[in-house]
Every structure is written in structure tokens, then in C-alpha cells.
């Protein structure tokens, strides 16, 4: 057994209390052996956490990591225009190599901001999976299906690809990669394809993840065409099961909140993307009160425009108060839970908790910063004050991915260089 000890840190426990302790990890099993005093002993490797907070690694519940290549490509438009006029034409030019380098760029940012696990919907998923395997993170990946604008054969091919990817990659990278069947949304995938393929996804034993109720423009056509609210329609098509999770859920009514709570389907709230695209304010406090599992996600870097879960936590708390017109709504504890254990539960990964027997996924945050002084309340600091640049070390599955801000599993300068070239070449191709 090889061991790693994270020593002298302030450890954030599952009940959100903080204790000065070491954390001892079995690196082969990727598991926490013990949390307690004086565990450095003869550990094979140590990580200094003095004057630092040791937290569960952050979980990003909804991302399109390769879209890092499109950061700043198109801003200041609402969802529909942004996708139709800018993003989809650019994505039409993306090669598998572009997706690989865009993923590596995004993974660098995830590691540097303390994220150890994420859920991702995109295409050229084998490239995303290869990047995840090498970078050392944990992920739930899927191929996003869009059937609108395609003939029947092309549409069925797309849905079949999502199913095949889900089957083939589940358990890849020594179990760090799991998968889901991923229809893009309830308006971009026709009901006939849901009826045909959802039962197959259930047979494959994978969850289903999709964008839902993101804008009023997305709700209206379903109400008009089917005479039902989108999540009633989703339930009728077998898309609201306890293992499933939806992104956004901005425009949900009371009945839909009740459906989510009854079904146990997770909601991944994406406040930065919702604000930037002016999609609306999700009723997060109402969903929490109804018992919905609420996680947090960044969405892609083209609509955020970063992948920091610390930023997302702050945005969620701030926007949640504004939406509820109540300063006590969406408190610090709720967002810290949502970015760790809540998210892990929502996307079906065993992560987000720092205790014996749990997966060894951590972020170590430097507290010796003016904006983190004084140390009244670590949960408050995580929700409101800490930033990506405060993350010192990141560990996933017992492996040190970043030590003292040096990423060990990706060559940062080389990835940036390749990303610059790929982005330049992509822009030129789109402009041709
Ligand atoms: C078919 S792969 C995933 C697909 O989703 C697009 N996308 C990125 N952000 C959003 C969003 O906020 N709502 C809906 N769709 C989004 C992305 O560009 C890919 O095409
Ligand atoms: Zn999205």
C-alpha cells in the first residue's frame, strides 16, 4: 500500500464543522483511511496543509468542458441567438483534436480551481474521455443528442451514438469515468426518439441528463404542442427517475417542483450562465424547501465565462437571495453542500465528503490571504470569499493532480499553446 498524508490542515467534515487534523489516504484504493491527529507517520508522500482548509474536492454538476475553446467567442446574447448565430456554427467546425485540446484546457482550469469531479455533455466524447483519463479527474460523460433539423436516419444515429458511448465508457479510467444518456433538451430532441431510446438507456443502466426549463422560449413550445409543462412531459416520457439530473430548471412551476422532489431527480443550478444569458432566476430556495436535490454547475466556459465552482457558489447564494427576496435564502451551508456532497448525489458519484472510507478527492485552500482574513467561518469563506487562485493542492482518487499550484498531470504551457493555435484555426475556418 502506498500512502499520502495531507498534514496540519483545517479539515471540513461532512457536518460542515472544521477540525485541525491530518488526512491519511490509501493511494492504490484512492480512499481515505483516516482523518485525525498525527497521521503523517511514515506516509510515502505528504502534502502540507498548514494555514489551509482541506475540503472535499468540488463537484461541477453540469459542464461542456471542451467549450473552453469558445470562451469569449460570443457574448451578450440570449440563449437561442447565442446558440443559433454563433455557437452551433462554430461547433460545426470542431474536429476531434479541437475537442481534445479544448477539454484539456478546461480540465486545467477545473484542477486549478479545486474541482475533482464533473458531469459533461458534448460530442467527440472519446476525446473528452481520453483527456479526463490522463488528467486524473472523475467524470460522468455523455454524448449530447440533437435531432431537430436532422432526417430520421441521422437523428437515430445521434441517439444511438449517445447510447453506445454510455455503454462503452461506463467504468473507464479505472472507474473514474461513468456515463449517462444525454438528450440535449426537451425541445431539441423529438418525442419519437425519446420513446425509442429512453427504454434502451434504462436497460443499459445509465442515468439520463438533459437541459430543461432553461428559458421561457423553451417552455412555451412544449406547452403549446403537448398541452403539458416540460417536466410533466419529461415524466411521461420516462425522463424523471431518481438517478436522472436536469440542468437549469429556471422556469419551473409548483407542480414541476413537486414532480422533481417526488421523483428524486436532481437539479443542477447554473446561476452564472442563467444570469449571463438572461435566462432567468431559478427558484432554488423553493426547490430546497420542497426537498429537491440541488447541485451546482458552471455550464460551459462560453456562457459563464469560467469553470470555477467557488465563483458558482457565490453566484448561487447571491442570486438565490435576490430570487426569493430574502437574505436568509440559499445560505452558505446550502451552497457548500450543493458544490460537494449535493452535487455528487445529484450526478450519482460517490464523492464530495471527507471522511474515512470516502474517495480521496480534495482541494486544499490557502487561508493566508487578506480576503480570507479573519477566519471566522470557513463555510462562509467557501461560499462568499474564496477564489480559484486560493487553491494550493488538488487530489483526486488519491493522486496529487496539483501541488503548490503546479498541475502535475497536464503540461499547462503546452496545453495553452495548442489551445491558442486550435482557437485561431477554428475562427479562420468559421469565417471562410
Ligand atoms: C449537443 S452537445 C451539448 C450542446 O449544448 C450546448 N450548450 C451549451 N450551453 C448550453 C445551454 O446553456 N443551454 C443549452 N445548450 C447549451 C453546446 O453548445 C452543445 O452544442
Ligand atoms: Zn449546458
Q: Which key features would you list for this structure?
A:
432 residues, alpha/beta, Urease, subunit C, domain 1, TIM Barrel, 2 domains, 9-stranded mixed beta sheet, 5-stranded parallel beta sheet, 15 helices, globular, binds the ligand CSC[C@H]1O[C@@H](n2cnc3c(O)ncnc32)[C@H](O)[C@@H]1O, binds zinc ion
Please give a quick description of this structure.
This protein has 432 residues and is an alpha/beta fold. It has helices at 79-91, 96-112, 125-135, 152-169, 191-204, 216-226, 230-236, 254-263, 271-276, 284-290, 309-324, 332-339, 341-347, 378-385, 412-431, and strands at 3-12, 18-26, 31-36, 45-48, 52-56, 58-63, 115-122, 138-145, 177-179, 182-183, 209-212, 245-248, 266-269, 294-296, 362-366, 391-396, 399-403, 406-407.
Topology (SSEs and partners):
Blueprint: E1 3-12, E2 18-26, E3 31-36, E4 45-48, E5 52-56, E6 58-63, H1 79-91, H2 96-112, E7 115-122, H3 125-135, E8 138-145, H4 152-169, E9 177-179, E10 182-183, H5 191-204, E11 209-212, H6 216-226, H7 230-236, E12 245-248, H8 254-263, E13 266-269, H9 271-276, H10 284-290, E14 294-296, H11 309-324, H12 332-339, H13 341-347, E15 362-366, H14 378-385, E16 391-396, E17 399-403, E18 406-407, H15 412-431
Parallel strand pairs: 1-4, 1-5, 6-7, 7-8, 8-9, 8-10, 11-12, 12-13, 13-14
Antiparallel strand pairs: 1-2, 2-3, 5-15, 15-16, 16-17, 17-18
This protein binds the ligand CSC[C@H]1O[C@@H](n2cnc3c(O)ncnc32)[C@H](O)[C@@H]1O and zinc ion.
Ligand LTUXU72L binds at residues 64, 79, 87, 91, 121-123, 144, 146, 184, 211, 214, 273, 299-300, 303.
Amino acid at each position: 500500500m502506498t500512502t499520502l498524508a495531507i498534514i496540519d490542515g483545517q479539515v471540513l467534515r461532512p457536518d460542515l464543522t472544521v477540525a485541525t487534523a491530518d488526512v491519511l489516504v490509501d493511494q492504490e484504493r484512492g480512499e481515505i483511511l483516516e482523518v485525525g491527529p498525527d497521521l503523517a507517520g511514515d506516509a510515502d508522500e505528504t502534502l502540507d496543509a498548514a494555514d489551509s482548509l482541506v475540503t472535499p474536492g468540488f463537484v461541477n454538476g453540469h459542464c461542456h468542458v471542451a467549450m473552453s475553446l469558445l470562451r469569449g467567442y460570443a457574448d451578450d446574447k440570449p440563449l437561442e441567438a447565442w446558440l443559433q448565430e454563433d455557437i452551433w456554427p462554430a461547433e460545426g467546425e470542431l474536429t476531434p483534436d479541437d475537442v481534445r485540446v479544448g477539454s484539456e484546457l478546461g480540465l486545467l482550469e477545473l484542477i486549478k480551481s479545486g474541482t475533482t469531479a464533473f458531469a459533461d455533455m458534448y460530442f467527440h466524447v472519446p476525446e473528452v474521455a481520453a483527456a479526463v483519463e490522463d488528467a486524473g479527474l472523475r467524470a460522468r460523460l455523455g454524448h449530447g443528442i440533437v435531432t431537430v433539423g436532422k432526417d430520421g436516419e441521422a437523428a437515430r444515429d445521434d441517439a444511438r451514438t449517445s447510447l453506445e458511448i454510455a455503454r462503452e465508457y461506463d467504468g473507464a479510467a479505472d472507474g473514474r469515468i461513468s456515463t449517462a444518456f444525454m438528450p440535449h433538451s426537451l425541445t431539441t430532441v423529438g418525442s419519437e426518439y425519446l420513446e425509442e431510446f429512453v427504454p434502451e438507456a434504462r436497460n443499459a443502466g445509465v442515468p439520463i441528463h438533459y437541459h430543461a426549463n432553461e428559458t421561457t422560449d423553451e417552455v412555451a413550445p412544449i406547452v403549446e404542442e403537448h398541452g403539458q409543462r416540460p417536466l410533466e412531459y419529461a415524466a411521461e416520457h420516462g425522463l424523471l427517475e431518481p438517478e436522472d439530473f436536469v440542468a437549469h430548471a429556471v422556469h419551473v412551476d409548483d407542480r414541476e417542483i413537486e414532480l422533481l422532489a417526488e421523483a428524486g431527480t436532481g437539479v443542477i443550478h447554473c446561476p452564472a450562465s442563467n444570469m449571463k444569458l438572461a435566462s432567468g432566476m431559478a427558484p432554488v430556495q423553493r426547490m430546497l424547501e420542497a426537498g429537491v436535490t440541488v447541485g451546482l454547475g458552471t455550464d460551459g466556459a462560453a456562457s459563464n465565462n469560467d469553470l470555477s465552482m467557488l465563483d458558482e457558489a457565490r453566484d448561487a447564494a447571491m442570486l438565490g437571495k435576490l430570487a426569493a427576496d430574502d437574505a436568509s435564502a440559499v445560505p452558505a451551508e446550502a451552497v457548500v453542500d450543493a458544490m460537494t456532497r449535493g452535487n455528487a448525489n445529484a450526478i450519482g458519484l460517490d464523492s464530495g465528503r471527507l471522511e474515512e472510507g470516502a474517495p480521496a478527492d480534495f482541494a486544499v485552500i490557502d487561508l493566508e490571504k487578506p480576503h480570507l482574513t479573519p477566519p471566522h467561518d470557513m463555510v462562509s469563506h467557501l461560499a462568499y470569499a474564496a477564489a480559484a487562485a486560493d487553491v494550493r493542492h488538488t487530489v483526486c482518487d488519491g493522486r496529487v493532480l496539483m501541488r503548490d499550484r503546479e498541475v502535475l498531470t497536464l503540461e499547462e504551457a503546452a496545453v495553452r499553446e495548442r489551445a491558442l493555435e486550435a482557437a485561431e484555426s477554428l475562427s479562420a475556418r468559421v469565417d471562410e
